[in-house]
Design brief:
By secondary structure, this protein is of the alpha/beta class. The chain has helices at residues 16-27, 41-53, 68-75, 100-121; strands at residues 7-11, 32-37, 57-62, 82-85.
Length: 131
Amino acid sequence: MSFEGASVLVTGGSRGIGKAIALRFAELGADKVVLGYLRNDRAAEQTAEQLRGLGADPVLLRGNVASERIAREVEQLGRLDIVVHNAATGVIRPALEVEEKHWDWTLGANARALISLVQAATPAMEPGASV
């Protein structure tokens, strides 16, 4: 399989599964790999360096994937061929101790972000592009 010339966005792309996904797209020929991440600048920079080593042009997108600012920045990325919403978070507490802010945080990153990212990305996605 080849993704020669593809432009890819991977949220949660600086570590773990997201990093592996981003690196694999670069190995398969993606030209631009956008890494969405929340806080860990060091991990994002290290992943970006690995992407460069594979011939891809990394773009770092730092912030809460559920935020309006990130949605606006995704709109400005131009053509995306693939969007992988890998970012996830949660609050580890017994269910009866979960507060409304914890629930909102979790749903924001895990669910609402997907729809806002898709709405931001799809106007520039061509037929055959994938989420």
